[in-house]
Design goal:
Layout (H helix, E strand, L loop, with lengths): L3 H19 L23 E3 L5 H12 L10 E3 L14 E5 L12 E5 L4 E4 L7 E4 L1
Parallel strand pairs: 1-6
Antiparallel strand pairs: 2-3, 3-4, 4-5, 5-6
Length: 134
């Protein structure tokens, strides 16, 4: 396990970059065009990755880079015991912690990814999910 303290500078830098990027505008279309929603996201709330909290965007970046992750359980199998995500064989889904400012533990926020590129966000410890388009 990598101590959180050792990763703190990297997480802070990621958060700073995310905050700076969120203040920039490309001047593009800001409409809510949801026509290209993948089948795995149908029937649930959908958000663009850019709409997630800064900490979630940093977690997505760490996932894309393959870590290192600040929490021991990051990358572990997510069992989907709640049955809210599409059914797949065990091991299809992995979970990652999204830090919660002010929380003394892992908090309730997670990113769950699937083998086929599916990405989900929960801020209520698996009681609900939002499909994340990337």
């Amino acid at each position: 396990m990598t101590p959180l303290r050792a990763l703190l500078p990297r997480l802070l830098a990621c958060l700073l970059l995310a905050l700076l990027a969120s203040g920039c505008s490309s001047g593009g279309d800001t409409g809510d065009d949801r026509t290209g929603i993948p089948a795995w996201a149908e029937g649930m709330p959908v958000a663009e990755a850019s709409e997630l909290p800064a900490e979630a965007r940093c977690t997505l970046q760490l996932i894309d880079e393959g870590g290192p992750f600040p929490y021991e359980r990051d990358g572990s199998v997510f069992g989907n015991f709640e049955g809210l995500l599409p059914r797949h064989e065990r091991g299809h889904y992995r979970e990652y912690t999204v830090p919660t400012p002010g929380s003394d533990d892992r908090g309730a926020r997670r990113i769950v990814t699937g083998r086929n590129g599916e990405t989900y966000y929960t801020d209520d410890h698996y009681a609900s999910f939002t499909a994340v388009l990337r």
